[in-house]
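queue> holo job accepted (phenylalanine)
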Amino acid sequence: MSQNRDGFTSTFGVLVATLGSAVGLGNIWKFPYLTGTNGGASFLVVYLLATLLVALPVMIAEIMLGRASRSNAVSAFEKLAPKNQQFWSIIGYMGLVSAILILAFYTGVAGWVFAYIFKSLMGSINSTDPATAKAAFGDLVSNPTQALFWQWVVLIWAGSIIMMGVSKGIEAVAKKLMPLLFLLLVLLCIRSLTLPGAMEGVKFLFAPDFSKITAPVVLTAVGLAFFKLSIGMGTMLTYGSYFRQEQNIPATATRVMLADLSVSMLAGLAIFPAVFAFGFEPSAGPSLVFMTIPAVFASMPFGNVFMALFFVLAAIAATGAILSILEVPVAMLSERFNFSRKKATLVSVGIIGLFGVPAALSSSLTADWTLFGLNTFDLFDYISSNILLPLGGILISLFVGWVYGLPQLKQQLSNEGKLNNGLLINALFILVRYVTPIIITVIMLKGLGLI
Ligand code: PHE
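queue> job finished
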């Protein structure tokens, strides 16, 4: 089967598609709002540490497992684990659950982005006044018909793209539009940083107050690091399975991590100065970006046009991420159950749509469906980001560190000795064998209040 799997067609294509998965609403929406609710700069510091020490090693390990097995997230572990240790494929099944939970709320947020494209063109969100911005956002999310409609627009859009196949669909979309998003973010930053009172926002983002760091905050930072780099659930494994044999995996992962980080920083610098300049609440939560970004554009000439363009690009970034998550169940269904790509897509989109309904309605009809004080939307996010992805990270690290082993790791990551990166591989091996699993386990147990 492995000979006729579709794959990425160039080294640059691999980088862009992987980046297309990593950069998404995690950068533009989740990173700013979590930084805002968790105290700003101190959260940023913990997040950076989590990315470097924990997420990057897992990312490299996960991509490597994909390329070594050339299979989907379940079959990969069946192939690479010894016959009597087939239980490792649980990682793949957990990824399937994460994919469904994440997409159930993520497509809802992407729906808000799609809706904002139209709202910006109509001028209905063009305001620097916090109360007006809040009302406009509230109208959208608390209207069940609108929330569901836009979520389904997203599901149908992403489903259609994925049916066209890996290289043609994903690569083509991602390649053309990422640089434009970057440019527009730079423009936003410049406007935001030159607003009167902008410095307060810069301070919020860069002057840490370490008293704000608690165990749950650390767990949230780790969860965000995993979420943003699309790791711990088989997405990067699945993408790794389409990597070319000569691709330098550690270098590619590091580049993706750095680029992903720059997009987040730009988003932070576009948002927080404006938050303070216009009097928004940094801890507004999921609505933060949807209120602040329009305000920055509203204080710019031709703001409406730029704003529409921004939301178009955000929609495209979200699409890249959605496609990569959707690829997990689609690859699994088509390779394991011999579903056609079309059938696999329809089944996956159907299931996600089902879970998506209560998530999309959690500011209206299902607002009082709560568990542990979280509504469906927040619960799906919490379970996936703060539990399943880190748990996936622990298991992937343990698998590579204790089962897959150093000799094979060396062979894979040095591209059979063609790359001279032995030291780096040794360091990575120690990290995934001991450091990452222990750190994540402690953070999870403490963050969940279990120890
Ligand atoms: N990394 C994506 C983002 O930042 C989200 C994502 C999570 C994608 C998990 C794939 C897997 O938006």
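queue> The longest helix spans residues 303-336.
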